[in-house]
Structures are given as structure tokens and as C-alpha cells.
């Protein structure tokens, strides 16, 4: 059912064919209304503006949906810090000329006190989410990344630590993570209490 819903959403919002189907269905209905109510506007006066408005707005629907989904994942979670956010538009999508939606977000959050290190997640429009486990060494200014394999097991992407670039140093060493670490701790306690109650 979820696959069918996704396919229909894509068909009606990302292609012109969905809009054409709507017009083909609606136009005869409006024509019938015109026959019953002669003072009703000509169907073309309604259909043509709706078609052009849809043509200009519907292709951008997925972009704004992505923005809403990403921001809802972040909102209210004090242990998550947005370290990079960029807006993506398109020359072929006029709606994005006026309000450019978020197209890429990178967030960082501390792992639990047991695991240590951080988790870095990059979400991009129409691209697969990139999740990394990060172990920064702020003394030597080096960093080690691990990413999940096909089975979901995190494996190091390099054999040894590599030098930090300016952005990584700013994210992991120049920022005080105590607030986020405390929020992670409190969230872990909350989940523990909830699981205990369920048992």
C-alpha cells in the first residue's frame, strides 16, 4: 500500500501526466454543470488557469515535502545540532524562485556515553541518506569515519585517522557539546523509563 501511495504521489506531483488526468476527469464534470446551470463559467475559464498554476507549482511539491520531513525529524530534539543547511531551487521550477526550499541538511549528534564519539547524518533531496559514526581527536586534530555496510554494520572507511579540515574542526572541536550531551543522556533515561513501564 505504501509503494502504491508513493507511486501515485510521484505521478500526480512530479509529472505533467497526473495533471492531465485531473483535467480529463474535471473538464467533463464542469461541462455537465454548465449544461445544468447555464450561468456557470465556461469550463475552459477554470481549467486553463488551473492547468498553468499546477504546471508551475506541482513539480516543486516534492522539494517542499522533503523540507517538511527533514525539519520535523530535527524539531524539538535538543541533542541534534544542524551544522550545514543549504537551499536548493531549480530554474525550471518558478515556485522555487520565490521561496527556495531546503535541499540539503547535515546534522551532528553525540552518541551515548557508552559509545562515545558522534553520529553525522547528511540528508539531501532525492539522494540516499548518509550516516557516519565519527571519532574526532581534538588534540591531534584528526578524525576517523565509519559508515554502515550492506548489513548495517559500521566499518571504518579509512585505515587510520586523517587530518581534519577546517569545517570538521569547527563542528567537533570549536563547539561546546555539553548541552547536546546532556540532552542525549536525558533522552536515554526517558526511553529507559518507558521501556521499564511497558515490561
Per DSSP, the total helix count is 7
Largest beta-sheet characterization: 7 strands, antiparallel
Please trace the helix and strand order, writing H or E for each element: HHHHEHEEEEEEHH
* Basic shape: elongated
User: What level of helicity do the residues show?
Assistant: 40-55%
Q: Let me know the average pLDDT.
A: 85
Number of strands: 7
Counting copies of identical and different chains, the oligomeric state is single chain
Find the structural class using helix and strand composition. alpha+beta
Note poorly predicted spans: none
Report the β-strand fraction as a percent range.
15-25%
Distance between the termini: 32 Å
Whole-number radius of gyration? Answer: 24 Å
What can you tell me about this protein's structure?
- The chain is of the alpha+beta class and 199 residues long.
- Helices cover 48% and strands 22% of the residues.
- A hairpin with a 5-residue loop joins strand 3 and strand 4 (130-137).
- The relative contact order is 0.09.
What's the structural blueprint in terms of helices and strands?
Layout: H1 2-14, H2 16-36, H3 43-57, H4 61-74, E1 81-87, H5 95-98, E2 102-110, E3 118-124, E4 130-137, E5 142-148, E6 154-156, E7 162-163, H6 166-172, H7 178-198
Antiparallel strand pairs: 1-2, 2-3, 3-4, 4-5, 5-6, 5-7
Helix pairs in contact: 1-2, 2-3
Index terms:
alpha+beta; 7 strands; elongated
Quick synopsis:
The chain is of the alpha+beta class. The protein has seven helices and seven strands, in the order ααααβαββββββαα.
